[in-house]
Design goal:
- About 30% of the residues lie in helices and about 10% in strands.
- The chain contains 8 helices and 8 strands.
- It has helices at about 40-50, 90-95, 115-130, 140-145, 160-165, 190-200, 210-225, 235-250; strands at about 10-15, 20, 30-35, 60, 65-70, 75, 95-100, 140.
- Strands 1-5-4-7-3-8 form a 6-stranded mixed β-sheet.
- A hairpin with a 5-residue loop joins β4 and β5.
- α6 packs across α8.
- The chain is globular and about 55 Å long.
- About 45% of the residues are buried.
Length: about 250
């Protein structure tokens, strides 16, 4: 792909050949955050721009806060893979993908530098304002692809982003004792919890059975919204946090 003019004025341009048309001319209404999960930023950026990789994203944010754009926002970058949100399976056509240079779980979950997070916040605000993206549609890769993906990980500072005007968040309820649900449980309470996860956007089937798939979806939820403990168990803290998130959405308040 030849050079293009950056949509975000602070970005430099390094074109990737890996992109296509957004299905049905769809405009982006999701911002999807990833970590690179590779040992160096240079190798990650190079891979995203190689034709043989068949992957890309719209933006890449270095540890020092420098931003690179690889695909124009009007085009469909290849970053989400098999994924869904609110019944939308082609998340790539619906989203702007942002890769954040971080070794992730393979590298021991290093902290995200403050300069990098400041740059991510500014980039998300810019994209969100230009495309009128709702706060609750600023998501992690693990939200749209539970089990298969775990990025940007439980150390990503979603609360800090929210305080700066990016994303949807409530303070997670404290972890306490009491009743909980886990793999193998069945019944109406499980069905109710599945309905809540589905209402928020996760691809949870309402079966009344706490399956391995449901546990993976709960882990994804915890990784984003209750990161202190990611175990796939529906304890009071997890359920209460989910309930308050739903209550904070305009259409449910």
């Amino acid at each position: 792909m030849t050079a293009f003019e950056a949509d975000y004025r602070k970005a430099s341009v390094k074109p990737s050949p890996n992109h296509g048309e957004r299905a049905g001319g769809r405009k982006p209404d999701i911002i999807l955050l990833h970590y690179t999960g590779m040992s160096t930023p240079e190798s990650a950026l190079d891979w995203l721009c190689r034709e043989e990789s068949q992957v890309s994203s719209h933006y890449f944010v270095h540890e020092n806060g420098d931003v690179v754009q690889m695909v124009p926002e009007t085009r469909r970058a290849w970053h989400a893979g098999k994924s869904s949100w609110h019944g939308q399976d082609d998340v790539n056509s619906a989203s702007i993908g942002i890769e954040i240079a971080n070794a992730g779980h393979p590298g021991g979950l290093p902290e995200f530098p403050k300069e990098q997070i400041a740059a991510v916040i500014e980039l998300c605000r810019d994209c969100g304002e230009r495309w009128s993206i709702l706060p609750e549609r600023v998501l992690g890769h693990s939200d749209v692809a539970p089990v298969r993906k775990v990025d940007p990980g439980e150390r990503f500072p979603w609360g800090e982003l929210h305080r700066a005007g990016v994303g949807h968040w409530v303070e997670p309820a404290p972890i306490t004792g009491g009743r909980f649900f886990q793999r193998g449980d069945r019944g109406q309470p499980i069905e109710a919890l599945q309905s809540m996860l589905s209402l928020y956007g996760y691809g949870t089937e309402i079966t009344g059975e706490f399956s391995d798939k449901m546990a993976g979806e709960l882990e994804a939820f915890q990784r984003h919204f209750r990161p202190e403990r990611v175990d796939g168990i529906a304890d009071f803290s997890t359920i209460d946090t989910l309930h308050r998130l739903l209550g904070a959405l305009p259409r449910y308040s």
